[in-house]
Amino acid sequence: MGLVVQKYGGSSVADAEGIKRVAKRIVEAKKNGNQVVVVVSAMGDTTDELIDLAEQVSPMPAGREFDMLLTAGERISMALLAMAIKNLGHEAQSFTGSQAGVITDSVHNKARIIDVTPGRIRTALDEGNIAIVAGFQGVSQDKKDITTLGRGGSDTTAVALAAALDAEVCEIYTDVDGVFTADPRVVKKARKIDWISFEDMLELAASGSKVLLHRCVEYARRYNIPIHVRSSFSGLQGTWVSSEPIEQGDKQVEQAIISGVAHDTSEAKITVVGVPDKPGEAASIFRTIADAEINIDMVVQNVSAAATGLTDISFTLPKAEGRKAIDALEKNRSGIGFDSLRYDDQIGKISLVGAGMKTNPGVTADFFTALSDAGVNIELISTSEIRISVVTRKDDVTEAVRAVHTAFGLDSESDEAVVYGGTGR
Ligand code: ADP
Ligand code: ASP
Ligand code: MG
């Protein structure tokens, strides 16, 4: 008997009908002879609604209480799903993250999983139950407080449980048919990818393709858990994310030169103006940011003006951390020594990802040509071995993604990509 972990995102369980539809699918997997563990997200946009509610009560809610509030969303869906399965005549039990043994560090709102001890899940399975686990949450090892794993964190719960239970596969059910060459909400001619390597998927996820969370792919690569991303609305094969290419018929799926185009409008840019051009300055700016537990993305330092010996340093970070970063830098202004800070949240990032970039000269040139032909101005550039990213004005992002997608021959000739549900929020 195989063990499968299935994760259903919020759009798949948006209402009672959705929950009943998903319940049928889960029962099918059980009837096929598998032990089934299900990780479920909060219904529809529940998490966003809870966040809005918290903001109306307090502009900066305490992390502990915020997490306690947000985890309520997944508690609702897990209980309803277990009820729907029982109604179909099968045994199911729901578990919170804490009950399922998801142990995290104590960084509220973006905790990391440090251990998974799924004893109760094993027992439930051995007794013939389908186990339903609330995604996106855990319990901190030291304080025993309830934590959340950051937005989209149910993906990580699913892969972590799959690793701990030695599952054959982790299926991620969502509102599109798999991982596409670009977000199907932006590029109608995006193409479904049959197989993608962990490396390329990691870069796409880190660059804003929210179909899979970056940490979840990191986890899957570390424990070599194959992920199958597919739609809960259709019966189609989705995208396999794994270390080795899959077979299709009697052929192996080839590694594409370019896997896809990702975009991200969730970041902001901070420019530290008038920084003395001497050793230690960048270190003290980024130490300040790190001490505030903020992750940054791109960094660029301008050439210093010869007359003044001053320079500007810009970096990007999640918009949600903008206020905290500005406050931390302001507090340290005399220690660091700078003139002023500029904050810009009207930026967007476009990234081209593909392992073939390493060996195909001209990819960078073609990328910049496509952006220039589309009249898009570039503000920051960063690259890795298999990715090129640029920051542009937010209003240019859609145009830029489409232009790059077309320029690299990624547009599909046939079907338009289907988006089955969700609000894209
Ligand atoms: P869920 O609620 O199931 O977790 P998400 O909204 O987190 O779903 O992720 C699915 C969404 O990811 C899709 O609806 C799509 O708009 C978006 N997306 C972004 N980039 C891609 C991509 N390259 N391939 C597929 N979907 C993508
Ligand atoms: N409900 C959480 C969120 O909306 C976690 C998840 O869906 O993965 O971010
Ligand atoms: Mg998601």
Compact summary:
The protein has 425 residues and is of the alpha/beta class.
Report on the structure:
The protein is α/β, with parallel strands linked by helices and 425 residues long. It has a domain at 3-245: Carbamate kinase, CATH 3.40.1160.10. Helix content is 32%, strand content 25%. The protein has an eight-stranded mixed β-sheet, sandwiched between helices. The chain has a four-stranded mixed β-sheet with strand order 5-4-7-8. It is globular. The mean pLDDT is 94. It binds adenosine-5'-diphosphate (ADP), aspartic acid (ASP) and magnesium ion. Residues 9-12, 41, 152, 174-176, 179-180, 182-185, 209-211, 260, 419, 422, 424 line the site of adenosine-5'-diphosphate. Keywords: Amino-acid biosynthesis, ATP-binding, Diaminopimelate biosynthesis, Kinase, Lysine biosynthesis, Nucleotide-binding, Transferase. Belongs to the aspartokinase family. Residues 270-346, 352-425 form the ACT domain. Catalyzes the phosphorylation of the beta-carboxyl group of aspartic acid with ATP to yield 4-phospho-L-aspartate, which is involved in the branched biosynthetic pathway leading to the biosynthesis of amino acids lysine, threonine, isoleucine and methionine. It is an enzyme of class 2 (transferase).
